[in-house]
Amino acid sequence: MRLARMGASFPTRLSFLPTLLRRLHVEQARVTRPVWQIDSAGFGHAVYTVELGGHAYSLVAVSSDLPEDQRTDRVIATAWDTAYVLYDGVPDTGEIERIVASAPKQEAARFTDRDLVLSRANKSVRLFAHVVDALRAGQQPDPDRIRDTGYLMRTTAVYGNGKFGIADRARIVDRPGLSGPFMAEMLTVWLIRGFTHDLVEHMGGAPLDRRLKRHLGIGNATGLGMAPFLVSHPMLLDAWMQVRETALARVRALDHLETQQRDRLHQLARRVSAHLAEWSVPDEAAQGDITVLRGEWSSLCARLDQTLAQEDHPLDALVSASRAGSLAFQELVVAFVIEPFGDLVDGLSECMATPFVPRLDPKMSLGDLNAALSKDWDWALGLDFDTPEATALFWYVSEEKQEPRLGQRHSEPGSELESPLDIARQIQVLARDLSTASGDLATFLKAHPHHRAPVRRVQTLMRHPYSEIRDNLIGQGCRPIDMLRCKLAFFGAARFDPKSDRWTRITLAQGAPLFDELERAGDWWLPHFGMS
Amino acid sequence: MTRSVSEISALLLKAGRGAGLSLGACEDLAMAAGAFEPSDLAQVAAMLQTPQGCAQIEALCLAFDLGGSGDLSILASVFERAKSPVPAGPRDVPEDVIDGLSELAARTFVPASDASRDGGAGSGLSDND
Predict the structure, then answer these.
(1) For A74-97, b where at least 16 C-beta lie within 10 A, e where not — what string?
(2) DSSP per-residue letters across A318-386
(3) Residues A60-75: pLDDT tens digits?
């Protein structure tokens, strides 16, 4: 599992948002809007409530007037167009008042354990204004503009799990429907998206065409802050990848396809072509990759009939053949072949969460530990950390905003305080010290307590093959957006729009069912504009 | 003021690092965050203030992995409790304990420089589109 491949990820039907929406559909969940206190300028608050797994959850949405000069994508902003809390239950008047007062302050406020998720979003100013203006003029907005932007607002943070006093994940970890990773966050995002639709319709004084509305997802801007998560949650990363790989193995094992399954794959292949044609980004390198991918996809489509008709494991053949293409093509083919086989793979989504945490076994012999190092860590042991390129970067937490940042080690101060994302380097030091050690591991760790963390990672990787990103995270070539794209694809994000090698915009819930059409929840993977 | 377990966990991890504890021991403290009683936290916070205290924590972590420390240290009982699910919900932590841990945590923060402001987070763009 290399950074470059992670950076080519696509969402699959096992991603968290599609999983949640299927669940909501199975439960025939209904979203209601008990409170709508929004003025004609679009400011005020609203409450949405939905029942899931026998519990009610409510989104409290607060919309405020944001001065132009305070609008920024950065996590360090201090004011936003809209702020949100996903509340456990149905808030009474007092609780609504509390949230309306505190949510707009975000990190600067404290929250309670009835608050499950905290988020905020800014308008996509030009599109938002255009949609409202068009509706006010008695027209529908320009479809091209809807297609090109794809959302009315971008979230700039979606906080869960105990941040700023909100509930720990432990509160909901056993709740049906919310037990999977990031499910509360995904529910929040889907409800926010519905709120953005309601807001423009309210301000515009007219309903928005359903097809246009469906194509308006929710944008997101994500930066470095998300990247260290995958390194600090090795078991979770392994669980996600195991699910994906198991799903892939199941469909590759199909010895032949029925006509109906072939038809479905053809239909999806055409949808992917349309999706790729609509996916354009300003970044030249990223656009170049998309152009290559379009060509590769078109070749796949040209020979798809023949490939799928073969009698001996057609999907296995398709996946094997994809290895001649770009990483993005390979990853897209994986998501494509999994998509039609919900019956075979959807149950695996239950395995996305893991109750386990890495444990250290100090009774392991040094011989076994050394063997594991040689077997699993050649990618780390082979690096030359004496070259400046291999240690070019250092991760740190800024004093100013307490956010993760990345510095240039050889030209910026502060590397002595770096965050421990230098996994490969830690493993090399461990291997060096082990080479002269004798006795048992406990004695070794007693003499070298700083090897406790790397030893635990080595032991974890022995049993959890996807727990480690097999690349040098402090090397010149490390691109944090590769980690971001992998994680965001697991959320269900698409239309990656990198703004640098450190942050990216994405779209979530584009093409996803609206509140009143959850029957569409099973089929909206990689949507294109105007999809029926 | 109450704190979520996740906040206590993050604070223990950073405070441990600020105190010079090994990353592995910091991770152990962080993973057991939900099992700390307020008085346990106060004691660990005090231990983190001295090199001897840190060495003791390192030894206790290892001893616990080896199947028990032989003594009934507070940390051993915290780790033991952390093996099973702990009750959810915010914890009341004395502010002086939080302050002590926060001070240690702050030792890991890198002061701002022009370079870090401009490039460290990778984005300085406005969001007016």
Answers:
(1) bbbbebbbbbbbbbbebbeeebbe
(2) HHHHHTTS-HHHHHHHHHHHHTT-HHHHGGGGGGS---------TTS-HHHHHHHHHHH-HHHHT--TT
(3) 999 999 887 777 766 6
The model's confidence at residue A403, banded by pLDDT at 50, 70 and 90, is: confident
Rounded to two decimals, what is the model's pTM?
A: 0.96
Does position B73 have pLDDT exceeding 80, yes or no?
A: no
Chain A, window 109-128: residues with a beta carbon less than 8 angstroms from a chain B beta carbon: 110, 112-113, 122, 124-126
Question: Cα separation of A492 and A13, whole Å?
Answer: 8
Say how many C-beta atoms besides its own lie within 10 A of residue B32's C-beta.
25
Contacts of A497 (CB under 8 A, 6+ apart): A281, A282, A283, A286, A504, A505, A506
3-state secondary structure of A494: strand
Task: Please indicate whether residue B77 or residue A297 has the higher confidence score (pLDDT).
Answer: A297
First to last CA, chain A: 37
For a pLDDT cut of 90, what percent of chain A falls above it? 92
How large is the C-alpha radius of gyration of chain A? 24
CA A416, CA A396: separation in Å to the nearest integer?
9
Tell which phi-psi region holds residue B119, choosing left (phi > 0), alpha (psi between -120 and 50) or beta. Answer: alpha
Q: Are A228 and A419 within 8 A, CB to CB?
A: yes
Tokens of B83: 């093996």
Between strands A82-88 and A55-63, the pairing is antiparallel
**Contact in structure between A297 and A250 (CB atoms under 8 Å):** no
> Residue B43 is which amino acid?
Q
Please give the mean pLDDT across all residues of chain A: 95
Average pLDDT over residues B36-59: 93
The shortest CB-CB distance from B4 to any of A71, A74, A165 is to: A165
What is d(CA A231, CA A424) in angstroms, rounded to the nearest whole number?
Answer: 12
Residue A503, token pair as written in the block = 């942050």
Residue B122 is classified by DSSP as S
- Residues A247, A338 contacting (CB under 8 angstroms): yes
Structure tokens at A65: 């007037």
Report whether A73 contacts A502 (CB < 8 A): no
Flag whether residue A402 sits within 8 Å of chain B, measured between CB atoms.
yes
Q: Identify the residue among A123, A130, A153, A168 best suited for mutation to test binding to B, counting B beta carbons within 10 A and taking the highest.
A: A168
ipTM: 0.93
Of A478, A427, A487, A453, nearest to A230 by C-alpha is A487
- Pick from A226, A242, A246, A239: which is nearest to A353 by CA? A239
Q: Say yes or no for a CB contact (<8 Å) between B27 and A113.
A: no
Taking the Cβ of residue B108 and every Cβ of chain A, the question of whether any pair is shorter than 8 Å is answered with: yes
Contact criterion met (CB below 8 Å) for A512 and A217: yes
- Report the SS3 class of residue A204: helix
